[in-house]
Design goal:
- This protein is an alpha/beta fold.
- It has 2 domains: 266 residues, Luciferase-like domain (TIM Barrel, Alpha-Beta Barrel); 43 residues, no CATH class.
- It is 45% helix and 15% strand.
- It has 13 helices and 10 strands.
- The strands form 2 sheets. Strands 1, 2, 3, 6, 7, 8, 9 and 10 form an 8-stranded parallel sheet that branches.
- Helix 3 crosses helix 5 and helix 5 runs parallel beside helix 6.
- The longest helix has 20 residues.
- The protein is globular, with a radius of gyration of 19 Å.
- The protein starts with a helix and ends with a helix.
């Protein structure tokens, strides 16, 4: 599988983490595949030696995944490959999760509350030294004990798109994931995250701020047209996260403006294109940059040869 091949290439070039998406359906119909990430990750870990492997992101909000199932799965991977598993969580998208809520897809505020409560329950399962009960608004557990504990504390990365969700991330999680432009990160998202973390008694300087950059290996002049033709522009539509059908998300590409596409994607025609974008995020306060390039090993090779050396030299 190409995902496993990509992980091996990333390991070879010294990337620190490979993140796997957790999708029941692909974002767009043209992608044609959506393998089960919890089966793929251990294979990728087993065929590499140094690179971390993580899920970006899973949704333990009580639909597709219950928190205790996620807690068990994560702890098992950490036992098999100590310190190499990374866990990202989010409030979910209708495409992946609405099917498991037959009474109706919950509104965002309910989903974010479910996610916060799921993190508390997960930590309780990982850390409890005896049987325990948990009484929450959405999750109720009576007399439970997780026998397979993580080897060490697994950090939880919380996906947050807006100011309020960034505040939840600072309160309940260890690290932040966000996909906003550098200026929005600097002025809105990061301050909200750090302020809430401080109020929760945490040290924000020890908490990572993770930003994925969507990289397209095409000249910027043709980039917007190509992204729209691929269907991936549909992901930028406001309604995409509440849409259940990848075919309809793909169709939404037609309504997304060139300006929106150009602001959200990084078009790679030379290493400087990507280095400049990374530097903008670093100056905004990001501490961890990921590259969204889908399953193309040759693109990882290009980044490993042309981009990573710039940062490994301390610049």
């Amino acid at each position: 599988m190409r995902f496993v091949e990509c992980t091996a290439v990333a390991d070879k070039y010294g990337f620190d983490t490979v993140w796997f998406g957790d999708h029941l359906l692909p974002w767009t119909h043209r992608r044609r595949g959506a393998p089960f990430v919890w089966s793929t990750m251990p294979v990728a870990l087993d065929r590499t030696r140094k690179v971390n492997v993580g899920v970006f992101v899973t949704t333990p909000i009580g639909g597709r995944y219950q928190p205790l199932i996620m807690a068990q799965a994560a702890a098992t991977l950490d036992n098999m490959y100590p310190g190499r598993f990374a866990l990202g969580v989010g409030s979910g998208e209708a495409m992946n999760d609405a099917l498991f809520f037959p009474q109706g897809w919950p509104k965002w505020h309910e989903r974010i509350e479910r996610l916060a409560e799921a993190i508390l329950l997960t930590r309780k399962a990982w850390e409890s030294t005896d049987y325990f009960s948990f009484e929450g608004r959405y999750f109720k557990v009576e007399n439970f004990f997780l026998y397979t504990k993580p080897k060490a504390r697994i950090p939880i990365c919380f996906s947050a798109l807006g100011q309020e969700s960034a505040s939840y991330a600072g309160t309940f999680a260890d690290h932040l994931i966000t996909i906003n432009p550098p200026e929005t990160c600097r002025d809105v998202i990061f301050p909200s995250f750090e302020s809430s973390a401080t109020k929760a008694g945490k040290d924000p300087s020890r908490m990572e701020k993770i930003v994925p950059i969507s990289v397209w290996f095409i000249d910027k002049k043709r980039g917007a047209e190509e992204v729209r033709r691929s269907g991936d522009a549909g992901l930028l539509a406001k309604e995409a996260r509440d849409e259940r059908d990848p075919r309809k998300i793909e169709k939404m590409s037609e309504s997304v403006s060139d300006d929106r596409i150009l602001a959200s994607k990084c078009f790679y025609s030379s290493p400087d294109d990507l280095i400049d974008r990374i530097d903008r995020y670093r100056k905004a306060g990001a501490t961890h940059i990921t590259f969204d390039i889908q399953s193309f090993p040759e693109r990882i090779e290009t980044l490993g040869e042309k981009v990573l050396p710039y940062f490994s030299q301390g610049r």
